[in-house]
Design brief:
By secondary structure, the chain is mostly beta strands. The chain contains one helix and 33 strands. β19 and β20 form a beta hairpin.
């Protein structure tokens, strides 16, 4: 397996305030990316639009083309509640999210929002036609087809974390520490592996998921046609990772898998933060890249919750890394990177360093960061300048 060094240009990374001090590093993603990477649905405690009158968590959509954000999670009942777990259709026109204890479906074109009732963990097909979610008691997976009167149960029994294929034909979900795929056309359900937290490709062929290898959580990829799985979160030498890996995301064709990991042996060079980092693995070239870093090295704060667009060219994730020199808040913010064109091959194999060199390198990085802060120079990346737009009444 080849590993590569960080090679992201300043102009390729954008940030938006989330001010999420409640988030834990291993929590599920707080953002979702449309198929073409233009629209990012995300949650934030920041009041980014005039219509956002409280300090609760809301769902916004960022348009990367015109640098505009819109508030999408308007109260359904007249009482404001926290909104979370957004998912977005391929064209960016439909957003589903948790509104308190209910599932909300937001049509951004006709400016309408409807409730699907109690539920959690929503997912939406790329064509925006099918919504899947978990019942509020985490016992059933429900499906809803747009314009239908009400959702219907898909799987009677324990079932959580559904993920939909592009047209909604296939639904991956976990139940009883196993990963299943349901075919809505043939009405059959297949158990594919031990594990949980699945995500499925547009054609339903590949499923990325988390499973235990020994005593460690790892990210794997199942090819349902071949009937074989491979470990994605392996070490740079091809062995086992020395830390847990969770929260997989996958491109539509299954080529790229993003995930977060505590492991320090996935890419070449020292891993000094010993915290969660975000990685992307390219199956075609066997290339692993750490995304949560800059040209000077890794960040010294945790990052996690990756989400990919269909082609795998845009990634969104959250990090405690400062958005700029004035950011002294200990909270998570949103990072959006377009990185595919900037990958550069790094050294082959592992580079061994003794403890003295590690400590020296760590001191150098900390000194460099302190100098950047004292000089008020922008840290990598730079904040995105966005226009604020209210949702019309």
């Amino acid at each position: 397996m080849r590993t590569i060094a960080i090679a992201l240009a300043l102009s390729t990374m954008l940030t938006v305030e989330q001010r999420d001090s409640r988030r834990r590093p291993a929590d599920p993603p707080s953002a979702a990316v449309s198929a073409d990477g233009r629209y990012i649905a995300f949650t934030t405690f920041s009041q980014l639009a005039p219509a956002d009158l409280d300090e609760r968590r809301d769902v916004y959509v960022l348009d990367r083309i015109n640098h505009r954000v819109t508030l999408e999670s308007l109260p359904l009942t007249g009482h404001a509640s926290d909104s979370s777990h957004p998912a977005i259709s391929g064209d960016g026109h439909v957003v589903v999210y948790e509104d308190g204890a209910t599932i909300a479906v937001r049509d951004r074109q006709d400016n309408s929002t409807r409730s699907l009732g109690l539920g959690r963990q929503p997912s939406i097909s790329l064509d925006g036609r099918i919504v899947a979610f978990t019942s509020d008691n985490l016992k059933d997976v429900y499906m809803w087809e747009r314009h239908a009167d009400k959702p219907v149960p898909l799987f009677l029994g324990p079932g959580i974390t559904p993920s939909l294929s592009g047209d909604g034909r296939y639904v991956a979900f976990s139940a009883r520490a196993s990963v299943f795929v349901h075919d809505r056309q043939t009405r059959t359900t297949e158990r594919i592996a031990d594990g949980w937290d699945p995500c499925i490709t547009a054609d339903g062929r590949y499923v990325a998921y988390v499973s235990s290898i020994g005593k460690m959580h790892a990210v794997l990829l199942m090819d349902r046609v071949v009937g074989a799985a491979r470990v994605i979160s392996g070490s740079r030498k091809g062995g086992a990772a020395n830390g847990a890996s969770v929260n997989p995301a996958i491109s539509s064709n299954g080529r790229l898998v993003a995930f977060q990991s505590e492991a320090s042996n996935l890419v070449d060079g020292e891993d000094l933060n010993l915290l969660w980092d975000v990685f992307v693995f390219d199956l075609n070239g066997g290339v692993m890249v750490r995304v949560s870093g800059d040209p000077d090295g890794e960040w010294m704060e945790p990052s996690g919750g990756p989400a990919l667009d269909a082609a795998g060219e845009v990634i969104a994730f959250s990090s405690r890394h400062p958005t700029d020199a004035s950011d002294n808040k200990n909270d998570f913010d949103l990072y959006v990177a377009g990185f595919a064109a900037f990958w550069q091959p790094g050294p082959q194999g592992a580079v061994r360093r003794d403890r003295e060199h590690r400590e020296s390198r760590g001191a150098q990085l900390l000194k460099k960061r302190a100098t950047a802060l004292s000089n008020r120079r922008p840290l990598f990346p730079v904040p995105l300048r966005v226009s604020l737009e209210d949702i019309p009444n």
